[in-house]
Amino acid sequence: MNVDAPTLFKLFEAAISADYTTVRRIGGQLARKLAEEKDPEAAKALQALLRKRGVPLQASGYVEALPRDAGSRLPLVEEEQWPTTPLFLNEESSHTIEQFLEDAANISMLSEEGVSSRLGVLLYGAPGTGKSLLAGHIAAKLARPFYVARLDSVISSRLGETSKNIRSMFDFIPTKEAVLFLDEMDAIAKLRDDRHELGELKRVVNTVLQGLDSLTDDVIVIGATNHPHLLDPAIWRRFPYKVELRAPDEDVRAAMWLHFLYQDRDAEASHARLLARLSAAMSGAEIEGLSLAARRRSIINKQPPNLPHILLAIDAASDGVPRLPAGHELSPEERKRLARMLVDKGDLPQTEIAQMLGVSRQMVHRYLREEKDGE
Ligand SMILES: Nc1ncnc2c1ncn2[C@@H]1O[C@H](COP(=O)(O)OP(=O)(O)OP(=O)(O)O)[C@@H](O)[C@H]1O
Ligand SMILES: [Mg+2]
């Protein structure tokens, strides 16, 4: 039996969104097709499968009730698991977050004294700095269910549908003592393009404001955006706490390398420090990505992570995505580049550089001299 790609995609989408009605409908069509193609056994087996009751994704069965976009049938809000990976923050950001968590934990006491404020925090910063991860950590710390609404998926191509989506998203939340995470908030501002009717942006912004104001005090709202300057000032004001997530500083980078690359083995602390000194421009997501790539290599080759290769990838990362060089011996060119990098930014004595590159100290000396002459 041939199944065309669009049907397959529809089937997968329905399966992943636990949309059993669509799964059954497509399954029924396929069973009929099997019968027509003179395969009654297979048709019967498929029909038997389709009669089974679908298992709800969560025992509570809430999945069925998630508000969805009328056109795409995608859920507007989803409950996500608390993250299991650790979060590394610069001191300044973690200080603000600590304060926010303390307020959140003592909200009833604060409101009795009349000094509570809305529990809203806006996270802003470049991609891959840990905004989404931090939102999950806040939910975990407060032991609250974590509801994620990605504003870009709430925006519908159908006129008028976006505001309706936003309303049903907010209507869904007040029933739970939850953390509501509004991710990718700048998607709203993107409505300012010419595809949309002029009044739509205004309407959508208003609906978001009404939604935020309608939430009871026990709902914690976290917003995230890469472009805070695109955010409507009235939305900006609804979040009493604002935390900028910056690129990780050197101490945080060292902790990240130690964790993601060396799985917190203390013996590797000096390597992690060296990597931190040399990876000034990298985000948390990039450090994690490169670390995992290097660990995959090291497992396959049954060798410890190849530090020179990682350093070369960091060096190349300044003009794009960090990529490990293919598993080969270092070329003289690469050794030279590394020697220069380690002397200039790594602050490493030449004997250690020689050891790392597997050459003599004299050789390192020569590399550095040749580099200079070549300039
Ligand atoms: N500060 C950090 N501490 C630990 N891990 C981090 C950190 N920043 C990024 N990561 C890693 O990178 C991944 C991606 O980060 P995350 O999705 O939280 O970034 P983001 O700021 O939300 O990015 P975007 O703006 O693209 O949505 C995380 O799941 C985590 O594994
Ligand atoms: Mg994110």
Automatic annotation (TrEMBL):
Span of domain AAA+ ATPase: 117-249
Keywords tagged on the record: ATP-binding, Nucleotide-binding
Pfam families, A to Z: AAA (PF00004), HTH_24 (PF13412)
InterPro entries on file: 26S_Proteasome_ATPase, AAA+_ATPase, ATPase_AAA_core, ATPase_AAA_CS, P-loop_NTPase
Claim: Oxidoreductase is one of the keywords in the record: no
Family: Belongs to the AAA ATPase family.
Protein name in the entry: AAA family ATPase
